[in-house]
Every structure is written in C-alpha cells, then in structure tokens.
Amino acid sequence: MRELNLEEVKKIQMEILDYVDGFCKSEKIKYWIDSGTLIGAVRHKGYIPWDDDIDIGMLREDYDRFCKSFNKKTTEKYQLHTCENDPSFRYPFSKVMDTTTILYEPDEKGVKEAVNIDVFVYDNAPDNDFLLKWMYFKRDFLRALRSFQYDYTSFGSSTKVILTKVFRKVLKPYFKGKSQNYCVLKMVENSKTYAMKTTKRIGNFTGTTVMCSAKSNFETTVELEFEGKKYPAPIGYDRYLTDYYGDYMKLPPKEKQVKTHHFKAYAKDDLS
Is the pTM above the cut of 0.85? Predict the structure, then answer.
C-alpha cells in the first residue's frame, strides 16, 4: 500500500469536512469549526502551519441528532465512529472517518483507525468555578484510567511504557467484568452532568483541553474562510478563543510550533 504524505492527508480531511458540512446543512444540524481549526481560520485562513487535523464542535442536541442519523444516511466511504456504536473506540467524542484509508497513531504498532476529523460535543457547564474544575478533574482522571484499560501498545519514553504496563497489570482486577469502553462511557456520563440544569456556560468535557465559554458565544454562527472555502464559526469566536488561548493572534514561540499528532496514513486502494 502507498503511504500518504501530509498534504494528501489534509486533502482527505478537507473532503471529509466538506461532506459533513453538506450533511449538516441538509439535516439542519448546527456545527462550527473548533479549536485549532478555528484559530487557523481566523489567523491563517487555513490550517495552522504546524497543525495536522480538523476539529468541529456541536451543542449536545445537535451532536446527538448527528450521531443518530449520520451512518444511516451516509455513504460507505464516510463512517461515524463513537463509543456507543463501536465498543473498541477509545474516545468520548466522535470521529468521521474515510474508510478508503488506514491511519496508525503513532505508527504501525499503535492504534489503527482511518484518516478522520474530530467531532466534539459541548455540554452545559456549571457556573460555579469549583464545580467546573471538579468536572475537568474527573475527565482527566478517567482519561488516565482509560490508558490502563485499553490493551494497545504504549508509546513514549521507556519509563512511561514500563509504568503503563505495570499499572495495567495492577488495575486488571478492577476492570474485570467491565465493558471495554467503561472509562470512555464514564467520561461521556461526566460530560452530561448538567444536562438537565440551566447554566450560562457550555464546555467541551470530552477533549483534552479546558474549553469553556458563555453560551451566548455559540447562539448563532458566522462564515469564516478556511483553505479557500467558507465554514461556520461561533458568533462569539473572538471571546471564546480569548477565554482559552488569551492573545490567540500572537504566534507561540518557535519551540512550541510543533505537530501534536504523530501518525502514518495509507490509501487502501493501493493495496495489491
């Protein structure tokens, strides 16, 4: 099979985004470009030069509708993976994958997926800052616990690999009888803590960062340019990005301008 270079991977990601954009418009599902993708649109009108993925976000109501309907109405080429429809899926958010590709993270010894874009859900966040920190603490604790539940090859420093294997053995009795995606489902449960409450803020409790901002920033969307096309962004994107990143228009130091993902991707149609 032929390995895909970064530009080819980005091209496939953009094709997925275009497909999702069309699907959401036809189903009247509100979404927005999110996180690094949003910063890229505002600051660079495209990918951040050292970035290599695409993120979108949705409110819980839209996210649930998206997850219920996407695979029923999509083509075989694009499939949505969630922890609810795929027990082996190790994330509490979802990914739309191009099934004509294979992606290994960080390499062939790691997790096997496909070229994809991330779909994050935003849930009600408590107005009390202590309770907000507690939700993120639970999220981070469950993320750490998850790394010991899934039996995939650890990567990183030799010390990290050894410690992961040790803790995996120690915690094996705890996970006995629990579903493979137990920790992931608990992370989803934590994210919905305030689903039935009225709050002034929403947050992303399924990703890896502390993304939380006023609901008013997401009431409607505006169009922003990204790689030569227009995509929806939160109406209050400036306040939202400032809440988390501060002066997001200022480039980070050179030493921090590095890729955050490491992977190898291949095209299935080149299989002989």
Answer: yes
